[in-house]
Amino acid sequence: MAFRIIQPIILVAFCIAMTVSALLDTVVFEASVRNLAFVNLSKGFLQPTLTFDEHFHRSLELFDRVSVYDPARYESYHLRLKGLIETLGDDARNSGDINHLEVRPRSVAYNGWESVVGHYLRDVAQGLEAVRENAMQELAGLLDSQEEMADFGRYVYTDMSGSSSFPVTFNKCAEVDLMAIYISEWSIAIRQPVPVVIVWRITTENLQERAVLDEPFQQQDSRWEFHRSGKFLFQIGTVINKLPDGGFEQIVLPREGLPPSLPCQIYGSQLQQQTQLVYEFPETGQNMVLLLGGRRNSRVGHSRVGLCSLPIDIPSHSTREAYLVTGRYRTVGEAMPYIGIRWLLRDAQKWDDNISAYVVQRIADEWTSFAAILPSHLAAKSLEYWVINADASAQLYVDNLGLFSVSLPCH
């Protein structure tokens, strides 16, 4: 009789144990899958180049399904990854469709001057040979007909939308006149080789055209070719950014502190809290940017905050060598931006003997892409990329910072 009573109890206990074991296995399994997906995505952030391949998308989809079981822990990562894909992963520029498009003449009156020039420059930078040749011819004809107009502007062009015009000037080559610079900021953001186009107008027949056209400039991190169309010289390159992660997309989550591309504080008295990596669009987790300022250091008299790169060696001092300094920035309040290069001289006896060359020195209420070509300083052994906000109580935002070796079309 006792056995008959115990037998159902054992059966019930066994069923309860199996149920608990199954539940535990499910929890452990879900946690394992979730952690595996998270590890895979984290590894993707740390790669030299952000690659939105099938493996990355599968990890994202898996993480998306299982992260709901632990939102307190994973929601911030979920927001970041979703924002990253929204910003960069589905961009049409990654599809390569430009190589299949026929370049057609575009109407300045209908589309606007800057829009038309920007489209042609993108075709030159990223199109196959036939597309490129057609685009150069069309753009050369357009520039030839428009440059005498009173409102003609020479600007920086990029593949980022919503950027105000930034003028370009260069007066170190008597044989050519700088007309436009195009940079793929999207390539900077995902840490890929960056397509760049520089357009020059030939001002004198003294240009050593054969030496320029027949001798492409090549270093370990850059290669430049020159193509002539009419009286214009197109300098086309695919170059490596000397600043690691100039777009700050390797940063996993917003935080205070220093980014890998600018790991050094310029002022010893500035606070770590005065430099932050934040979302441009916090509600959607899109586009990581660097913020300098917004907080005054009450313990010191001045209110400057600045970051710089590690010293970058200058391998040679050819008369054709220069550096292309690029990025985008926006100011809020009374921010005082200074962005450019610090030349570290071989014979400098003290820090103030070194020389700064600033590309940006004016406020910008809207995001503004900038670029400038700076000839290599013959007395410098190395250089640093500098970003300064001279009024740290206001806010300076920067993004997609770039530094590239450039070959000039003159000696």
Question: What are the key terms here?
Answer:
Jelly Rolls; single chain; 6-stranded antiparallel beta sheet; alpha+beta; about 400 residues
Radius of gyration in whole Å, from Cα?
27 Å
The biggest sheet, with number of strands, parallel, antiparallel or mixed sense and barrel status, is: 6 strands, mixed
* Element string (H = helix, E = strand): HHHHHHEEHEHEEEEEEEEEEEEEEE
**Structural category:** alpha+beta
Oligomer: single chain
List low-pLDDT spans.
Answer: 8-29, 92-103
Mean pLDDT: 80
Sum up the overall morphology in one term: globular
Total beta-strand segments? 18
What does this structure look like?
This protein is of the alpha+beta class. It is 30% helix and 30% strand. It folds into three domains: 2-90; 96-239, no CATH class; 255-407, Jelly Rolls. The strands form three sheets. A six-stranded mixed β-sheet has the order 1-2-3-6-5-4. A six-stranded antiparallel β-sheet has the order 7-9-10-18-13-16. A hairpin with a 2-residue loop joins strand 5 and strand 6.
